[in-house]
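Appendix B, Record 12. Input sequence as logged:
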Amino acid sequence: MDTQNVTFKLFVADSASAAPHDVTRAFHRWIQERALDELLIDVADYAHVHGGPGVLLVAHEAHYGFEHGSDGRLGLKYARKRGAAGSLGERIGVALKKVVRAARLLETDPALALRFRSDELRFSIEDRLRAPNDEGTLATVTAALVPVLEAAFGVAPALTQAQRHGQAAREPFAVDVRLPGALSLEDAAKRLD
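Logged structural output:
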């Protein structure tokens, strides 16, 4: 499957402790300190917009969003948009590594009180042309995604194709991933390095 648009979303464990404006400040610090190994460009804070994109950190090859999204759950989303090479499994591995690293930076930020769940996440491909929301895409993605998740979290994932808004064929392809008994994000980050 030839697509750049692989996306992961890690969910916040306790959304009551999450303050989007504090994440905005953290994202600005990341740009100033070159905290990630990629070109970080700008931060846009849309947290005041109901149902909006939340807080975005725009990078050259991807963007990071601290958002509620269409699923209504607060989390950190990594969306790759260009520059990915290799097989689908390799692109998935790079995206997972990047979102886990960013989540760990937020978790260890002393100005924040954030924790992310390691037992569930969402994977999607926001490219309806190359990855239609159908069984064929599910089979292709499962073959590439499962080994990456097993290697990172130490358990076999359970995938459920996401059904959103009752019109699955029109929505981008997405799977909800359950990882019961998964390693912590800290341990997953070590295994991904």
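The beta strands are 6-12, 40-46, 54-59, 62-67, 75-80, 116-125, 158-161, 173-178.
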